[in-house]
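Hello Y.,

Per our agreement to keep a running log of every chain we model this quarter, I'm adding this entry. I've kept the format consistent with earlier entries: sequence first, then predicted structure.
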Amino acid sequence: MTNANDKSEKSSAALRVLSILETVAKSSTPMTATEINVELKLPKPTIHRLCTMLENEGYLQPRLDGRGYLPGKRLSTLAMGIFSNNDHWRTERRGILQRLSEEIGETCNISIPDGSEMVYFDRVETHWPLRIQLKQNHRVPIYCTASGKLFLNNLPSTKRSRLLAKLRFVQHTHNTLTDVNKLKEELKRLSTQDIGVDNEEFMQGMVAIAVPLRSNEGGFYGALTMHAPSARMSMEEALSHIPKLRESAKELVELIDE
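Predicted structure for the entry above:
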């Protein structure tokens, strides 16, 4: 039979774990166990033990140089799952996407990173008969898509370099950048504008632009993207819609952070 002290200890341990995850998730930069503990003030052996456990379970991910933790894949999946499945958020989120799609006249979607791919987890289709079918949960590569490039530019430099070194580049179209040095030049150019661009690089005949969904603390939630057939919209015209995307992205982030 479980006594009151056992329940209290388990509750305390669970709250400590959640506090660690919350602290790392809110930080715009990697945090060491010591830095996390500046806020939480736990016993030193406890904070190191819990951080190691969370790393082993995939909720925290260490930097390449070992100096600090980032949100791991399981923590990111958990956060986006909550955002995706909450009925209140879903209704309001769909409303924002629907309005943006109607204003621009093209398909709009939200995508989140998952390893070396971006995953579409919500989208609103354009009413035009000519459209590009990329359904919910569809996965696309990060090196030749607007949302993927945006994600790469929001990674710490060491993690970005490590990820780029592991990528298998496929020539999807004539415009696909398969040379890592040329891709880095493109990312540097786009970073000054804080956008992602796909100029018929993933699919022939499709252009896309993306803006970040970023927390108030600077954490990257995902990307808000618009894509259209190049026969109907030029890249120059697509870029003119950046202010509309940024406005909708702000609404989406406020919805997440409220």
